[in-house]
Each structure stands twice: as C-alpha cells, then as structure tokens.
Amino acid sequence: MLRSRNKIRHAEDDNGKGDKGPSRVLTSPRQQHQPQLIVPTWILCTTVAFFLFLGFSSEHYKRSREADHFHEGSTSAHKTKDDFQNGFRKVPDHLIGKSMLSFEEDEQLEYDATNQRYHVIFSTDCSPYQHWQSYLVYFTAMKVRQPGHVTRIVSGCTAKEAVEMNKWFNEKVQFMSKRFHIHLTPKFSEVRDETGKVVGDYKFFNKPRGLKHWLEHFDLVGFDEDGGTFEHPDDIVILIDPDMALMRPITKDFSDERETLISKRRSDGHILSKEVKHGVPFAQTYGLGTQWQKFDLDKIAGEHSPAKDVSKVDGQLYFPAGPPYIGTVKDMYQIARKWSEFVPLVHAQYPYLLAEMYAYCIAAAHLGLKHQLIDSLMISNPSIGGEGWELIDKIPLQETCEFAKDPDNDKYALPSVIHMCQRYSVGQDWFFGKRRIPNDIYECETPLFEEPPRDLALKYDYKWPPNAKEKTPLSPKLINQQTFMVCSLTRLLNDASIFYKTAACIDRKPNMNRSRKVADLFVEREKINS
User: What pTM was computed for the model?
Assistant: First the structure.
C-alpha cells in the first residue's frame, strides 16, 4: 500500500521517543487503592485536602502549579523582575542575569510589534537523549529573539523522572527567559487493540495528544473546560519538531517575498492568505501528496466526513502539511481534537512512521481548514523540492560555510528553521548526524566540536559519510547545501555549549577546546582502496 518516504522525514525523527511507563503521579484518585478508615475522619479529610491543594490528585490534571513538581516550569510568565531574580522559578543564583536578553527585552518579547502573542511548542519523551535537542530549541529561540513563549511538552515521565525533568529545566534553561516553559503530560504512545489491550507503542501519538493536553492545561491560553472556549483564542501556536533549530523568528506575517517561497502552482491564483488568521493555518510543504485520500476515510473520519469531498487538486494544494504548523489557538484546538481522534485509526491501517502526519492531513481536511503551504519555513533534506533551498542556493560557494556559522537574514534571506533529521556530509572528514550526538555536550568538561574550514565548499566535490563504502560525487549546488548544513549545525552546537559553559561553569574551568569531530563519534568507515 503506502510506504514512508525517507525524503519526507528521516526515520531518526524522535518526537516522543522512548516513552516510559505510565506516570504514577497522574493516576486519578479513583484509580488508586482506597485506604482503610482506621483514623478519625477529620484527619483523613485534612490529609486529602492537603494533597488536593498540592495538585497531586486532580482528576482532570488541572493547570500548572509551582507546588506540583509536574508543573514547576509551566506557569504564567507574568512575574516581576524581583520574583524572577529571587528564584520564583528556582533559577540558580549564579545564572540570574546571564541570558542574552535583558529583563526589559524579555518583557518586550511577550508580544510582537503588532501586539500578537505566539507559542512555540515542541513534543518530546522523557529521556535525557532529547535534552540536547530541546536545549538547542530554547537557545536558538533566545538567540533570534523569537517573540512569545516557548514550551517543551514532555510525555510519559514517571514521578521520579518528572522531578529530574523540572530540575534540568530550572538549572539549564529557565535563566534564558521567563517566557520559556516545560509542560509534562501522561504517556500517550500506547497502541491498543479494539478491546483496549496494549499491543504496541507508537511514539508519535505524543504529538497530537500532547498538543491537545497543553492547550487544555496551559494557563496563558485560558481554556474553559465547561464551555470548551479560550480566553486567548487569537494567540498563535507554532508547533515544531524537537530537532528543529530556529534561524530567524517565526511570526504570522508571510508577506515578504524576499524570504517567503511558495511553489508556482500554489502562487498562481491559489494563495489563501499572506498572514496567519482564523480559518487559515500555515505549514511547511511536505512531500505527502494526496496519499491520505487512499485510506479508508469512512473508518477514520466517518461516512459523511467533508474530507471525502476534497478533490485531488485541492488535496495537493492545501493539505500535504508538516511542521512547522502555525495556527490560531482556536484553529489548532479543533485540529488537535480531530488529530488525536484520527491518529490511532490511521495507525491501525498504516502502522508506519508517517501515520501521525497523514492523520493531521485528514483532520485538517475533515474540518475544512485549508492550509497555506510555505516552502521556506524549513530546510532539511538537500536537493529535495518543496523546501527553502532556493534561499541557500543564492549564497556564493566561497561564503557558504562562514555565513552558515554566523547567519544574517539581512544579507541573505534565511529559512525559518533548520531541521537536522538527515545525515550531512562534505568530503571525508566533515559530517553531521544527530543520532550520535552525546547527551553531555553542554557539560563543563566536554570539549567543543572542531569546526569546518571557511572554504569547505571549495575544497570538495563529493561526500563520504561514516560507514559508507565509497564516496559520492556531488554537484556544486549539492555541495553548497551540504556545506551549509554541516557548518551551521556544528557552529550552533558550539555556540549553545559556549553560552551555557560561560554562564554555568563557575566552580571549574570549562573545556573550550574545539577538539572533537562529529564524524569520530560514528563507527570508523570501511575504506575501500581504489
């Protein structure tokens, strides 16, 4: 039937990877063993009231509370400078004031110049493996001055892991901005059969269900559980993957033709809007085509679903969408509900990597929410169509590596995010692949990565990644694209490491030696004598 396409998204994508067992803290009181009444009733009532106050036994998993270790990093940002500096969010004293942002600038970034508020969110599991990626999201959001809030949605933590997760956030992230948050959810990745029995695990269930949970529990959007409405329905949600790093701010405005690429077939009379608004979500173009229409939509969306009435032309123009997804809170909640409902049904028909992406397409079509698809939101896979490579191709070969290390959107227009889901290689020694990046890259004693030479794109006309049996010739265009990825990602990790070490390594000398090569982290390649 349908097969996943490596050109769409690499199998190394790890949103929600490695979910743990169900969280005990999230268990409803009705599911817990009831204690025997061997103590006076007033003592029992007092005890129950105490724990209810702490937030440990809320049946509906009420909104974030600092007293609950599941929510320490998920509270409202409307605090004073003194609150922040006095450790309201438990920021270590030596990190206060070490952000790239002044307190005043951080305040101003609550909204953009048009008074629009944004929420950049991304979904992960509870494993330390995704710490370094998550840290990079926060770091790049701070670096590019992304307006609004940034939240890591973490699914499947045990009670102990929740404590460690909040500790990681408080000690390593919170000092960057009071607008940065963490939001923990139950485990959502279990695959169940028709009887409700757990028969497997699909980590990408975390994305739609985590989005829905966040919308219903995050204080700032103000969800009314009784009415199903929001206090701030006009806020804009930007859902990205954890292996995406921001290269410039993402906003609702896509009117600048210099930095906004839309395919010709969509730009010729099919542009819905140049601005994100109610009823018109935006997203990155993905090579999903109309494959979602080949599923049994009756079983997924119902016999009378509007998704069944979408033509092949409209299916291609408006629905092959992928992250970054951008929409108003109102629209994204509609999508999150149907996406969460449809994804297990899609997975039942198609138990592969892209099931959750196809489920998103079906949810959007079912709701009649045509997407304005943008090519330049992302670069990920060199040479593939529908991405922002046209912008990178304008950079001269002799400038590519240095520009990638220190990008300037005023000099050459940039895509919004760099998605590190592939393997990138130039020559024999210069390589980047996220899979072997160690968890300790930001620690004080860990050396930095050796960076490629400034003339990298001029020195090679081939790639030879680790474990490849032979080198692969590349055109100047592909060399330019591969060079941009290798140079940009290597420098980004170094910049993030240097920033953290400079701020945090106060009791020991940080290792600033650029002595480690990413290629050396992989198994030594098998060289073939020619």
Answer: 0.84
